[in-house]
Structures are given as structure tokens and as C-alpha cells.
Amino acid sequence: MSELFNFDLEKTDGNARAGSFDTPHGHIHTPIFAPVGTQATVKAVTPAQLEEIGASLILANTYHLYLRPGEELIASFSGLHQFMNWNKPILTDSGGFQVFSLAGTRQVDDDGVNFKSHIDGSIHRFTPEKSIKIQEALGADIIMAFDECAEPKDRNYSQVAMSRTHRWLERCISTKTRSDQALFGIVQGGIFPDLRKQSAEFISKLNLPGNAIGGLSVGESKKDMHGMIEAVNAILPVDKPRYLMGVGSPEDLINGIWRGVDIFDCVLPTRLARHNAAFTPFGRINLTNTGNSSEHSPIDESCSCYTCSHFSKAYLRHLIVAKEILASTLVSIHNLNFLLQLTLQARNAVLDNRYDAFAHEFLENWHEKTENNLEVKGFE
Amino acid sequence: MSELFNFDLEKTDGNARAGSFDTPHGHIHTPIFAPVGTQATVKAVTPAQLEEIGASLILANTYHLYLRPGEELIASFSGLHQFMNWNKPILTDSGGFQVFSLAGTRQVDDDGVNFKSHIDGSIHRFTPEKSIKIQEALGADIIMAFDECAEPKDRNYSQVAMSRTHRWLERCISTKTRSDQALFGIVQGGIFPDLRKQSAEFISKLNLPGNAIGGLSVGESKKDMHGMIEAVNAILPVDKPRYLMGVGSPEDLINGIWRGVDIFDCVLPTRLARHNAAFTPFGRINLTNTGNSSEHSPIDESCSCYTCSHFSKAYLRHLIVAKEILASTLVSIHNLNFLLQLTLQARNAVLDNRYDAFAHEFLENWHEKTENNLEVKGFE
Questions:
Q1: pTM, whole model, 2 decimals?
Q2: Structural domains of chain A ordered from first start
Q3: From the first residue on, what is the mean pLDDT of each consecutive set of 10 residues in chain B (380 residues)?
Q4: CA dist B14 → A274, A312, B57, B261, B364 (Å)
């Protein structure tokens, strides 16, 4: 492991951690939330707007970018940073999760996965080697091992998928050639503590620059999610960053940090924004509610983002009702800013030794008024 | 007329003019292009992005805002400036054009127009008095007289509509109460020089703070459009700004300025952007053309807008093909910037006494390579 990807664990407060991770495109201060730019764009938001809200690490997807526009094109721009104009750290997912969640009919064998493109039904094959080669062409700072995502409640499948994920990780490590990219391994094992422990032990031994927890937030209970994070983080090395993949509701961030997670990503803030839902310290609100139709106040009086500094709920609701694109942009800016500020506040709470109080206060406010009338499906 | 709406004619060069118009929200330097914010948003662009490209005057639509969200809501924000967060000059169209072009079945009489909402089919009535009252509630700096837009090639209808527009203008003037809004009259008369002259003479006598030319760019030939502008501008007072309504292709701007027009507005730059077409000095290009799929250069090498400074044609084409909202935003920024820069260059050419050479050079480049494969219909 190169010094480049050094993780400096600045402070712990209980299991919560504050740290700093070096990448070729700058430091990542943890805990951190990474906005998702699936197709090399964080949906409806410009890089300048992302920078304005203090985004640092962002995520892009190997599966999507391989299918469209193809990794060769992005490599011709020396990678994603130049292609999408993001000069800060980027992480690419390996395509494992998407192959198992988005693609059509698939066939898994020990060597890899055949799958059908969700775009045009064409047939493709990913192997650990192929995933790493694509990710090297995409050129992100952090790349992910190719993993198999099982049904989390199916013990037999979880065990098979975990073992395959471990063998695939070894092949990813052998394939990797670039020293300016950090490869993170992924812990699998469904909702079974013994499998999770076994997987965490396996991955820990490989001494990778960072470790991820995969296969959560896919339908299991919050109790199971928390239990798995606790089981895994009891084993993962403390001197490496821990990335909880695909997790990103405000309460999940708070609970994850409490249990020692450093990095999060999720499509939730931007997807909710395009479905007219906004985060407030008291829970999500649905901007289309008629109660907002003449409301002069912003989404969140305590928020200093561009949207809350300049626009009322009545104006945002008008944009939504009139089907104006600007609604998606403005609400995405707010929701992303909300999670970025939340992780920043969490970091400060850890540094000040008051994370417990911070987390309790946040969760008490949050659960009180959450509007549960929002169902957001589909993928980003 | 208040000193507030003073027009300072700084320089003429042939018939081309450079001037400055005072409004409660600042000076407008002419010639100027006004981006259109039909529903109180310039589509897909934030006010901050508009400011960055140097937009000053923007337009909003009485017809749309009356129907949704209603002028009372906007009045509760002290008007459009605060509602949509635009602290520079705003102009509202009267609803006349939209009632005749967008609304369903309509009945015109000397008193006003009954029309069906294009949103829900509900029945409404606009009169000159109603249009002015709505525009006073919306609170723009420049408001427009309520006019009747005839089929431009139908002489009888053009004459009837022109006479009615004149009588309605007198009623608009009587109704108007706010001294912080400038009311512009509208010259009608189809493609008939004698009617246009008659209309321009009528409007000129009323000594309004500005005058507009309506009913053009609606299907007539370029020759007819230019002839009408010449006929009208030979009569309209030189010490008042002249606004050519709904006109806004680059070549139309150049030709309009050549013939003494000061203000333009059009949905074209943003509508084209959402249909993947971008302005260059050599004509429109269609970004979806496969030739752009691996093109590292920006839309226009000579352009300094955010889009051209940071993104390649290959990236923009990828966003378009992947149906990403960001494409609309980035191409809209470029197209708006193109027209704003074009009017700024035209203004400098007038100030330097070289407008003829400037216009000839632009038009020679422009016509050479225009891609005519774009049909953009519908309304904004």
C-alpha cells in the first residue's frame, strides 16, 4: 500500500471516528457522504454547484459507464475527472451490485457473470479482471472489488456469494496495475453475523487501503443492518477507512457513524429531490403538499444552501407543479447539502467528544415528524 | 413618463443603436437579448447561472403565471423579483400573444377575449384592464399592452386586430396605476406596410416610455419581417427603446439591430438546448450527431461560458444520450450566453462605428454551415 492512500485516524469518540484519507485528488475528511454520479453526472447538478456545497468524494458506476458511453471514451480523456470535470476524489463501484440488481437475466459461475444490458438487452460478461480493467480505464481514486450480492436473508446463497466474493477479490488484487488507485475489498455475508465475521476476517488479512461493507440497505431490518455493521467493524482494521455501500438516509448516516463507519454513498438525496421530497432536521417533507402552496419560508430555515437562501417552499412547489427542471436542481442541491452538512457536524461532534449527544438529539428530532407518504422506487 | 424610464440613446451607427434604459431594478444596456422565463424560471437555469452569463432583463408571461400559480401568490412576495429571485429588470408579456397562440377555443369581442386554459380547459376572460391588473400584481419593471395577434397574412383580420389593439392600448393606459412600471405599446398590422405605418403612428403619439413590434416571427418570410421592422422603425420615436417581440435567432438579432431594434426576447436558445442544438459562430450544431461522440473540443472554442470552459461535445452528447437533466442546463447556459455575447458585441460595434462590417462578417460565417436538420416545435 502506497503512502498516498494513508488513513489518518484523527479521533475516536466511542466507536465514532474522525479521519482523513489521502487520494491523488486531495484529502477526504471523514465521516463523509459521497453524492452519486451514476452516469458521470450527479443528476441535475453541475460540478460548480457540487463544489459550492462542499462535496468532495463522488461516486460513479462501472456498470453504467461501461455500457454507455464506454470506458474507452472516458480513458481518452485520461479518465472520469476530466471527462465530467470533477477534480476532487472519485470512487467507482465495481458493477457487482448493478449486475445483480439492474441487469436482466444473468448467469453466475465461478469465473464471472453474464448479464443483459438494461439499456438494449445486449449480452455482456463481467469478471473480476474485466471490472478492474474498466475501473483502471475510468481512473477513479478509489476502485471497488467485483462482488456478488446475494439475497441477504438467504443463508445458503449468502455463503456461496461470500466465498465467491473472496476468491474474486484475490483476482482483483492480482489484476490491478495502477498504483494511483486504491482498491477496497467488500465484506458480504447477508444478515448472518457469523458469515459477516468470517468475511471481515478474510478481507482484513489482505491489508487493503480501505474496506467496504456491501449488501446492506437492500430490504433487511434496521436492527439487522446495525447488527451487521457492529459485527463487521469489530473486526475491520481501525487504521483503514470503512465504507458502508449504498447507504445514505440521514438516520442511517448517524447510526452508521455511531458504529464506526467513515464513508457513505447513496442516490437517495437526488432521487428524493426528483420526487419532490426534501430533508429537514425534523424529517422529510413532501413539497407538493398543498400546505406549501403559499409558504414563504424555505425548506429549512436553518440551512444556508443556495436553495434555502433564495427560494420559498411556495416557489419550489410552483416549479414542481409546472414541471420545471429547475425544481430538480434546487431540491437536489438542498438534499445533498443536508447530508454533507450532517456528516460535517458529525465529524465536529466526534472531534469535540460529543457524538452520543449529537446523535441522540438528531434522531429525536428526525423521527418525530417524518412524512411517510413518499415511496421512491426505481434506480438512478 | 417618469424620469425613471429614461432612454439614453448613446450612439447610432446607420440605423443600429446603442443605448441605456433606466428601470427600478437597474439599467438595461441596449441592444439586449432577454432570456424567457415563461413560468417564472428560465428553463433549467438558476438565477445565479443567469447572472454569471451577464443576463440583465428577463421576460415572464402573464398568461402562464395568471393560470399557475396565480398572480395573488406572486403579489404576496411583492412580485416576481422576490418570488423567482431575480433582482434585475423583468418584463411581462400581456398575455395577448399566448391567448391567441396557446389557449384553446377563444372568443374575441371589442371588450376582451374568452379563452380556455391549455392546462385544464377551464374558461377565463382577459380584457386590457384585467391584463394590466395582473401585470401590476406581478410587478415587472416593463409591462406590455394587451394586444390582438392576427394571422399576419390576412389583411382584413390584421386591420381589425390592429384597430382593436389601439383601442385596448388606450384602456391599458387608463387602467395603469403604478408609476414604477413602464407600459410599452405594441405595433400590429401583419405584413402590410401601410397598416404597420398607421399602427406605428398611432402608438408614437401616445408618448409611451417604450414601443414594441408585435406579430412577427410567426411564419412570415424574413423579407417581410425585415420590411415591417424598417417601416415601423422609420416612424417610432428615436428617443424610446424599440422591442421586437418573440424574435431571437442569432441572424434575426443581427438583422433587427441593423434596422434599429433595441430589445429582443425569444424561447429559442433554451428550447433548442433542450432539443440538443447549440449555437456556434458557424451556425447551429446538433450535439446528438455521432460525429460528436468522441469529440474532445467544446461546443465553441471561442466561447468562455461555463459549459465551453469545462465540457467537451463528447460529454454533452453522453449526457443527452443518457437522458441526463444536466445536458439541458449546460446547453441552455451556452445558448443564452451566445445571444447575450452577440448583443454585447453588436453594442460595441455600434459604439465603435463598425456595425455594418460586424453584421456582414457574422452573417457570412453563420449561413455557411447551419445544420438544418432541427425542427423545434411546441411552446415553452
A1: 0.96
A2: 3-266 (3.20.20.105), 273-369 (no CATH)
A3: 84 98 97 98 98 98 98 98 98 93 84 94 96 98 95 93 97 98 98 98 98 93 96 98 96 97 98 97 96 97 98 98 98 98 98 98 77 44
A4: 51, 47, 25, 12, 20
